[in-house]
Amino acid sequence: MFSRLPKSTLVLLAFGSVYLFWGATYGAIHVAGEHLPVPVVSATRSLISATLIVTICLLRGKSLRVPRGEAWKLVLVGLLFMSANNMLLTWGETMVPSGFASLVISTMPIQIALLEMGLGLFGKGGETLSWRGWTGTLLGTVGIVVLVWPSLHQRAGQGAAAGYSRPLLGVIVLLCAAFSFAVGSVLSRRFRFRADTFVATGWQIGSAGIFNATVAIASGGLHRAVWTWHGFGAIVYLSIFGSIFGLVAFTYLLQNVAVTRVATYAFVNPVIAVLLGVLILHERLTKTELGGMAVVVCAVAMVVYGRVDRSREVVGSAGNAVE
Asked: I need a labelling partner for 26 at 20 to 30 A (CA). Which of 186, 237, 240, 265 fits?
């Protein structure tokens, strides 16, 4: 059915999917984390996504085998993307609003740029930052400070009633989540996987699902889980729309649209997340935080456009960020 649509229509649908589905994942993660233990959320989401991907591969006659020597690399990247990143993000969203969390996570392209620069200094083929990239990095740092400052002073006293009593710890956890994904993105680029993209994604999410399930069982989270329709519905959304539909739409865009346009997801998703958090979850940002949001979004845009033409792979590998 979709193959009969004009290319321009498919591109618009793909952009809408990436913007909306990935922007909404922050709210869904927040809802899921309110109802279920963090490891259970990550494990269930990963296992459902992996099962769907494997089923699709089998129905299409795709072999699940990967080239020799790539299995452990796929597992490592999967653990960084869907275990460390996903569990830290879910945990962080139990301490701060979903829109706020999306803004902290949006610094991930800046972290990738700094990692690449560090590798370049040690002769590992990393990229240097342009003046625009450096300006964006410094601006992003200022934006995070502006974003966090009112939380430390205002929500410290009000947070207990709102459920956000540890904003500073939440920001630290979210920055670690973004860093784990940044490391996974840099490694993924250098590994240059030869496996089919869909199969490789199945390996990554599947290995993370097994690890997450082990953590859920070992920590007693699976035993303590109280399943609700809201919690389960949020996980189903994350598994299908966040992981499957979002990934397919993003891959289509990379193949059919200039990467500079595709990269807009990095600073559009946080705006979508904030708006949905206000409209659906009734979250509120102070005027200072809204100013910090504008600064962070502009900073991420500067870093992305300051290096995107030279690094299609980094933008592409960052596409599964939260989601």
From this structure: 186
226: left (phi over 0), alpha (psi -120 to 50) or beta: beta
| Number of compact structural domains in the chain | 1
Rounded Cα gap, residues 164 and 170, in angstroms: 9
CA-to-CA distance for 47 and 49, rounded, in angstroms?
Answer: 5
With both helix axes pointing from N to C terminus, report the angle between 197-218 and 71-78 in degrees, rounded to the nearest 10: 60
Given a contact cutoff of 8 angstroms between Cβ atoms, the answer to whether 137 and 110 are in contact is yes
> Which residue is listed with tokens 């199969």?
199
- Terminal Cα distance for the chain, rounded: 26
Residue 272: which domain range? 2-320
Q: Dihedral sign, CA of 14, 102, 243, 72?
A: positive
| CB distance 29 to 231 below 8 Å | no
